Amino acid sequence: MKLIAKKRCSYGGRKFFAGDEIPADIVLNVEREEKLGVISIANDEAGVPEQSGALYSQEQVDKMMADAVANASKGFTQEQVDEMAAHLTDIDYVTGTSDALNTQSIMDMIFAVQPEAKTIGLLYSNSEANSTTPIAEAKAYLDAKGIAYVEKTGNTNDEIMTAANALVGQVDAVFTPTDNVVMAAAAAVSETLTNAGIPFYTGADSFVTAGAFATCGVNYTELGTYTADMALDILETGTVPEYHVMDGGIITVNTETAAALDLDYSAFNDLAGTVVEVETTAE
Questions:
Q1: pLDDT by residue, tens only, the chain of 283 residues
Q2: HSE-CB of 48 using CA atoms within 13 angstroms
Q3: Among 196, 210, 191, 194, which residue's Cα sits nearest to residue 252?
Q4: Can you give the pTM of this predicted structure?
Q5: What is the distance between the alpha carbons of residues 155 and 178, in angstroms, rounded to a whole number?
Q6: Rounded Cα–Cα distance for residues 243 and 85 (Å)
Q7: Exposed, middle or buried by CB within 10 Å (0-12, 13-18, 19+), for 114?
């Protein structure tokens, strides 16, 4: 018999967390602790809890999902991840959550703060898979509004800086998605655009702490909770819920950059549940 902690607990002067195995000889009243929902009893062969009801507690599911999310794509390139994802679509028993960039939300941010903007710069690497979809979405959004845009690309730091400098004097704002090539030069790009009076809107908060103006992203606490709830529903009911794309619930603003640009970003409060203020951090 194995005892598995369902929540944080303490026996024999030792602390245990959800999912930890507890030595049976230090639990004085196993039946009572199981009824209280503190532990589950598992058989020695399969490690399957013997109690009635849910196979795993919410705490155990949270822990499993956190581990899975943290390790899901380690060791794979973005192209490999995309290929694997393509093979998993349209399968009834495959589901999950996505933190895909909400390009529309970032475009909405631009025009909330800069309603008179007439031309938007699109800065990205054409070799970066992460940029393909959001750039296409940004173009569609701007086309629908009748807003002009200027595209500049690069595949090295020097090329990205040349592209950023080429946007100066041509655009009212610049958008970069979650682009790793641009991210490598984010601090220098941010400085160049800010000095030119051009707000830099990006696809991740790592750009913002490097000096970009603002981004809108997923609340990862909410994403983890939603994913864990989905997993628990599957374990308890056997029903596989629909794949879910999370809304962008957090806007992150660099207050130093906002001050340098003399921008009032109070309109962001109407666009997201949370507005986080940060400052530029050293590399």
A1: 788 888 777 888 788 877 888 988 888 888 888 887 788 887 655 444 444 444 555 666 666 665 665 555 455 555 565 566 666 666 666 788 877 788 999 999 999 999 999 999 999 998 888 899 999 999 999 999 999 999 999 999 999 999 999 999 999 999 999 899 999 999 999 999 999 999 999 998 889 999 999 999 877 677 788 888 888 888 888 888 887 877 777 899 999 999 999 999 999 999 887 899 999 986 6
A2: 7
A3: 210
A4: 0.64
A5: 14
A6: 12
A7: middle
